[in-house]
Amino acid sequence: MLRIFRFSLLLLLLLAGSCEDESDQSPGSQRGDHQSVLLISLDGFAFDYRGKAHTPALDSIVIFGATTQALTPVFPSKTFPNHYTQVTGLYPEDHGIIGNRMFDPEFNEYFSLSDPSVRDGKWYGGEPIWVTCQRQGLTSATMFWPGSDAEIGGRRPDDYFVFNGVVTDQARVQQVLDWMERGRARPHFISLYFEAVDQAGHNNGPDHSQVIEAIEAMDALLNELFQGIVNLGLQELINIIIVSDHGMTDIRRERVIFLDDYLDLNQVEVVNWSPLLELIPQTGEEESVFQSLAGQHPNWQVFRKQDLPEHWHYQDHKRVTPVLALADLGWSISSRSFFQSTPGAFTGGTHGYDPLETAMGGVFMASGPGFRQGVEMEAVESVHLYELMCFLLDIEPALNDGDLTVWEEVLNL
Ligand code: AMP
Ligand code: ZN
Ligand code: ZN
Description:
With 413 residues, this protein is α/β, with parallel strands linked by helices.
């Protein structure tokens, strides 16, 4: 406990108070007197990671702010659908980013994270919070966020960067601190994104010591960020919201389902493989493809598009394929040739499973003037974050699927 308090935000606040420059007669005008929201994503930070590592900075947010037992992702529990839900308040079937990879039958084109389609606004429906801000006269700056480097509804964040994983985490933090130093011109909404913990989870599985190392490195960096905010005297003006998009589970080569055991692969277009298999059969072959897969393996569930579970809020979009199969937690789907030619595949960790699987849960931790102190509430669905942020920024949300009232317990009303 002592170690936690040594690093605590409270102590940082006290230290900052004692170092204040006495010549600063009008701190309000120096700092800008408006409140901002700083939204931080720790990609792939599972709901139980904080308990596995030494995380004084995150602990200080929890002790002096609010947390939920988990942040429940939307389906599929992948990066792009979830981050875009967090900033729009829409389920994937309503914003259209239904996967990290998608095929659009009207565009007759693929969307992929590794080509320029990821920055093409025509794929992005709904209204991300940076657009809501701009429409209502507020400013935004994004240090990466899925969708933030695309023009959406004719608008972009006031400051943004094209995603580049080579930019160090340290440089990302410094950029955010630079924005915070702008006084009255400090952006109202700022995003900050880190993929390091997700990558450690993929490479090793969630229980590996390298994941703990990645969590602790992340925490040390967050400590620097929080200290920077305090040094700028902004702790009472910034609502810090830390989230993740999904959790992580371990996968093994002994738990793989082979599609070509049941189907001639020439019969279908495979849009995604695993753990959510998304298939476009040749026209008229939808039912026969479904029949040849359904019930064939005990560790997947096969669906026709029209029979998808209600709680996924997934089926009502043109980009969802006619036939789908979802592997059970920890299982993967592949072809025999890919499996044999890729010895490193299907080891380590992954995500993408049903959001109701506990292991897919992410995190929510927040502190600042808008939040009560020391509150922990039950799991909340990530679709409600947009409403929360609009409330904190005092702007009118666009039409969305979220509900502000779920946050009542944590808000400083
Ligand atoms: P996932 O495959 O769902 O684990 O996605 C995580 C990966 O998404 C990260 O490791 C990044 O490489 C990638 N990513 C995250 N944000 C962006 C972005 N804004 N643009 C392109 N790729 C991104
Ligand atoms: Zn992710
Ligand atoms: Zn990932």
